[in-house]
Write a structure and sequence with these properties.
The chain is mostly helical. The protein is built from 23 helices and two strands. Strands 1-2 form a two-stranded antiparallel sheet. A hairpin with a 2-residue loop joins strand 1 and strand 2.
Length: 518
């Protein structure tokens, strides 16, 4: 430990003498993480990866030596199976293992005070982020490199195209780097090291519902499931693709009718969102009291994801929803509506400033009225997100707006009501209950969103469930020809009345807080 501290001090002295611009090999944080990884032992992990890879390689060689003993049509078919197992283990090690390692390392160093002490060094915030981002998961990178080498041997022996290996490895590496950046952010914000793993598992769980229509789901490309399986299916003879539905896993996805290569779409999405994750990580490192994401960044992330998702399903109606038959896929817009609500809730929670931060800004301006509070609150962001959703959803019904205007109004009014209620409820609870705010936010959302469904089941009356804050837009998009549009429009108006009541309570709490400031 003393030797590591002397090396770290020597590196910092060199930084002060030469300036703060250093490459990776001279980055003290990266070197410290590298030494910690090596001290913990990497040989056993590398040998485990090698044994797994060699076992799979031996299985392929055994088949090639005696193919009559196995139920496979050709070497490429068995090669795909063994290579699929190889990259499955590689994904577990590099993406999930690396994500867990980064978030846990940062959370532990924050708890021990090392993170704050590192921030006081001459290193730039970007160099601190790079040090943890690439240094903490080195053991997982070593293991993945061994598995990738074994996978290349399997691909060559099975006479599979080299593009299969290259494409899958690029997607796996890009995904690992993307989720590594997300892990850095979570490690900076979460109090418990296990929280990052829970977030990753939740993201993986969201992928399962989209497996039935993978070409139409955003998560199939942000998590590059479609790109990887597409490469497998398109490498080899068509008769070898009996494990997958050719209709769902072949062909190119379309963004507003324009075909896009899956690997390009996945890499492009990860790159664009990764830029905002990088900016957030650097900003949070420079000043921990800064918001996790800025408002324009929040709107940009929301807009990018929403445009891509609506672009993927646009080809079903081609701008003429609901007059064009959707071949049993009417529920897709309802699923997208649910995803929009979930995404907006996450963004509003991440971008909403703490009341004390807003109050300090108002006091510095010398203004103690709500005119100084409102621009810095989460309410304008909620309005901006609703506006972005309104513009994107319009693309689905622009050609049939005369028939769809009421459906559109209910769906957008529902989103507007939810966004405003969520943002006002969050800030009201933070002002009123402080440390207990999260519990009361959960209580409010339970009453407004979940309780109506429970009551509908208890009283066997489906109409009660439509009062849920989630229901009107989802119901009308799933059944656009329903005669309940006027009824649902009235429920949306009732939700907007709740917005007014919450706004009055929010306003009262802010007035009390400003009055205490003297």
């Amino acid at each position: 430990m003393a030797r590591s501290r002397r090396r770290f001090g020597a590196n910092l002295f060199a930084l002060r003498r030469e300036g703060a611009d250093v490459n990776l090999n001279d980055n003290p944080i990266f070197l410290t993480q590298k030494r910690l990884v090596h001290r913990g032992g990497v040989l056993a992990a590398i040998l485990i990866a090698a044994l797994i890879g060699l076992s799979l390689l031996a299985g392929l060689i055994t088949y090639l030596a005696a193919p009559q003993d196995f139920d496979f049509r050709s070497p490429p078919a068995v090669g795909k199976m063994f290579y699929g197992w190889t990259i499955g283990v590689e994904i577990l090690v590099l993406v999930i293992g690396g994500f867990s390692r980064i978030s846990r390392t940062l959370a532990d160093e924050r708890k021990n005070g090392l993170w704050d002490s590192n921030r006081l060094t001459p290193l730039k915030p970007a160099q601190l982020v790079i040090g943890y981002w690439l240094g903490a998961p080195l053991r997982e990178f070593y293991m993945a490199a061994v598995l990738a080498g074994t996978g290349l041997a399997i691909v060559l022996l099975a006479r599979l195209p080299a593009t299969l290996w290259l494409g899958t490895q690029v997607l796996i590496l890009a995904t690992a780097l993307f989720f590594g950046l997300l892990a850095v952010l979570l490690g900076m914000t979460l109090q418990r090291p296990q929280g990052g793993v829970i977030v990753l598992l939740a993201l993986g769980f969201l992928q399962f519902p989209s497996m039935t229509m993978p070409k139409l789901a955003l998560t199939s490309f942000l998590l590059p499931v479609y790109g990887i399986i597409h490469l497998f299916i398109n490498s080899g003879n068509p008769d070898q693709n009996h494990s997958f539905s050719a209709h769902e896993w072949t062909g190119l996805p379309e963004i507003f009718g324009a075909p896009v290569y899956p690997i390009v779409l996945s890499l492009g999405l990860q790159f664009l969102i990764g830029i905002f994750l990088w900016r957030a990580a650097v900003r949070k490192t420079a000043n921990p009291f800064q918001p996790l994401i800025l408002r324009w960044e929040a709107v940009a992330i929301f807009g990018i994801l929403l445009v891509v998702q609506h672009g993927l399903i646009w080809g079903i109606w081609r701008g003429h929803f609901p007059t064009v038959m959707a071949d049993g896929r009417n529920e897709l817009l309802s699923i997208v509506q649910c995803g929009t609500i979930l995404l907006a809730a996450l963004i509003l929670a991440a971008a909403s400033p703490q009341p004390e931060t807003v109050r300090v800004k108002a006091l510095r301006r010398g203004v103690k009225n709500l005119g100084a509070i409102f621009p810095d609150s989460a309410v304008p962001l909620a309005l901006a997100l609703a506006g972005a959703a309104a513009v994107v959803l319009l693309a689905q019904c622009a050609g049939s707006f005369a028939a769809a205007w009421k459906i559109y109004l209910i769906a957008i009014g529902n989103l507007l009501g939810f966004f405003l209620i969520f943002s006002l409820l969050l800030e009201f609870c933070r002002l009123r209950f402080r440390r207990r705010a999260l519990g009361f936010v959960a209580l409010g959302l339970f009453v407004l969103c979940v309780l109506p469904f429970i009551l509908a089941g208890v009283f066997t009356n489906a109409a009660i469930g439509k009062f849920s804050l989630l229901a009107p837009g989802i119901v009308i998009l799933a059944d656009p020809n329903s005669e309940n549009s006027n009824y649902l429009l009235g429920i949306v108006a009732g939700h907007l009345a709740i917005v007014v009541l919450l706004f009055l309570g929010w306003q009262r709490q802010w007035k009390q807080l400003l009055a205490k400031s003297g």
